[in-house]
Fold:
Amino acid sequence: MDTLSYKTKFANKENSTQNWHLVDAEGEVLGRLSSKIANLVRGKYKPDFTEHFNSGDKVVVINAEKIRLTGKKWTDKKYIRHTGYPGGIRKRTAKQLLEVKPTELIIKAVKGMLPKNKLQKQYLKNLHVYVGTNHPHVAQNPQKIEIN
Structure:
């Protein structure tokens, strides 16, 4: 036999498709929700998943302000950033971040669950988080996914 009857198929632009998913974050626990979103955004559930190619789906998350945290995480969990200047550490609790930017809680949680490589920015472009139930992606006809 001089030819192989089997070949490994890799995902690329020609043979990969991106589906649109709609996730309602109302009453969902942040960590459990973001781990499932990270798998959707990365495309890890697909049979043609390829590590070096962004074959993930687009995910629209609504009701970001109604997310749930367990225990004392609303007051004890800190989000730290640095301005770049001496003494420029800025800290916010999860409750303060929810009041200022409710979408950032979900984005930061999903970002932490994605691989730290060049594809991370591309994966995050597949994630769209909105406050309330209105979103501008109605024309893409996203399929609603139940997380529970």
